[in-house]
Amino acid sequence: MKLIILDRDGVINFDSDAYIKSPAEWQPIPGSLQAIARLNQQGYRVAVATNQAAISRGLFDMKMLCAIHHKLHQSAQAVSARIDAIFYCPHAAEEQCDCRKPRPGMLLAIGKRFGVALQNVPMVGDSLRDLQAAIQVGAAPYLVMTGKGEKTLATGGLPPGTQIFDDLAAMVDRLLHAEQALPAAAEVARSASGKKKQP
User: Which one of 44, 82, 133, 184 has the largest count of C-beta atoms within 10 Å of its C-beta?
Assistant: First the structure.
């Protein structure tokens, strides 16, 4: 199984410093849902891992979070995209839970749900905590410049090996292009090896 893990706010949809508190405030970044559709077409399962401290802070409740995610699913389906699972942490940072990124609990739960080892699984985020969570479980960190991405890049301290892209669509294009290039390269290598063995 091929798995990719995405942060939500700032990766799939526009972010807000005041939190995304209603379905009306949830607006997809152009091209993000279409990028997810391309992942689906190439056999990827798509999981979302999102910190939602606004629940703990009383800015909205679980019913509203479900309504926001219902809009996400509906919007994805409208472009033939599929989100396989959404994992969220409802806690504020001061609660010191294990699931809030940069701690790895949410990603470990995703790996357990799908029965997948997270080594080199792509994890796409716009904040340092997304990348730090990825590194802790052996996932491959990808930073996008949407959302808080530009600020994250300017602040520095990115984990070694972090790859940087303008947005989710650009990241997916590169990921899928690299996958398609691998079989072609292997075929060239086999062909070259066969020619060397000929007398």
Answer: 133
Q: Return d(Cα 12, Cα 125) in angstroms, integer.
A: 9
In angstroms and rounded to an integer, the radius of gyration of the C-alpha atoms of the chain is 18
Name the token pair of 43: 């056999």
Rounded mean pLDDT of 84-105? 97
Express each pLDDT in 78-88 by its tens digit. Answer: 999 999 999 99
> What's the CA gap between 47 and 50, in Å, rounded?
10
Active site residue 7: yes
Cα gap 39→28, rounded to integer Å: 17
Residue 128: CB partners within 8 Å, gap ≥ 6?
A: 102, 152, 155, 157, 158
Nearest residue to 135 via CA among 152, 153, 120: 120
Give CA separation, 1 vs 44, 63, 73, 125, in Å.
Answer: 7, 32, 21, 21
Q: Which two tokens stand for residue 7?
A: 């942060």
